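Hey, quick one: can you model this chain's 3D structure?
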Amino acid sequence: MEIKNKKISIIGAVRSGTAAAKLAKNLGALPFVSDAGSEEKLRLSIEYLKSEKIDFEIGVHSNKVFDCDLMVVSPGVPSDAEVIKTAKSKSIKIISEIEFASLFCKANVIAITGTNGKTTTTALCGYLFNECGVKTYTAGNIGLAFSEIALAAKTNDFISLEVSSFQLDFIDKFKPKVAMILNITPDHLNRYENSIDKYAESKLRIFENQDDNDYLILNNDSELLMHYYKNAKSTVLLFSTSKKVSNGCYLENSTIKYVRNDNLEFTCSVSDIFIQGEHNIQNAMAVIIAAKIFNLDDRKILEALKSFKGVEHRLELVREIEGIRFINDSKATNIDSVIVALKSFNNPILLILGGQDKGNDYSMIENLVTDKVKKIYAIGSSSDKIFNFFHQKVKTEIKKDLEEVINAALSEARSGDVVLLSPACASFDMFDNYQHRGKVFKEIVNSK
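Sure thing. Here's the predicted structure for all 448 residues.
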């Protein structure tokens, strides 16, 4: 795409938006950044845009945003936002930040999506490829914004790219060399008319532009994914912990086996993977398949699986105080993530739930909660909903903030208990994002 001297409106002034603005400027375009958020929350973005001499507006989307040749949308902007609907009515071309960055990137993109596990898988993929001697950037929803490294990444480099359904909503020609869909379970339905079909269709767009030179890695154990899966033009490889596959990875007697046309090419033990849990076995399988596509060294693959320690805010042990473990799982923004978290512990759990509700069905964790949880602390704008659902099943209290929760937990928990922040909700009612929520949780725990 030739964008020199083109007017580009960028909606959203946080990480992806500011990176897209700088990329546009470096390519000779005329970027204009617009964000309806407050100046207080966007202080760092404002300073950055000023230093880069990029035109912007904060607190409003004025008519100036529609005076453009192209609109680039950050992932945090809902597809039904008024500014987007108005742009559509004016027939303005709208693309996501990952679409924009991909137009100018020559590197091999491994795009990873799914309801759960994509952050861990993206981080593991980037780590493993680098450990195997291949220059790889980790970008997208974690690490760097794609636009930050689109031009720096060379032809033989790789980008391990975490991709959300929101980013896929506005792609056009986005064509990753490898696409992964880890799973599809109900999430973000408030942004998809409460329709799992619309949500799944968004995820499946990750491979819509692939051809027979590309690869698609799918979870053969995800019923919803296999139900919605449509025939792809790319080469399909599968992973499964419950059944054999002919091309891809499967689990047999605690051994992960990679096969190509039923020929065994790589094995490792489940115990070789540092990050434990069935969900992480599946995440590792997806990355092993990607590594074998590019014939990376088996010994180095195994060493990387053994040494990768996981990601921040995902079942992260913060501290143990008098035998009480405090676990930061702030990235658990949906019910399925909480299921994974609850299944990860055999000790009694004091569970911190709540935040900005996304249409959660708490009956999905009712049995797990009654079996494993001795108390629930409900926080945020969804606290009443959580209290009303759980208070007759398990002891439940509403708390005003994390400070109050942790003080209560310190007095009520006993040695051997787990205090688990696994909120099942978005963070935007109380925090900037899930990272901010996890950081505050850790700071409070470490201050005690």
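One thing worth noting: The chain is about 35% helix and 25% strand.
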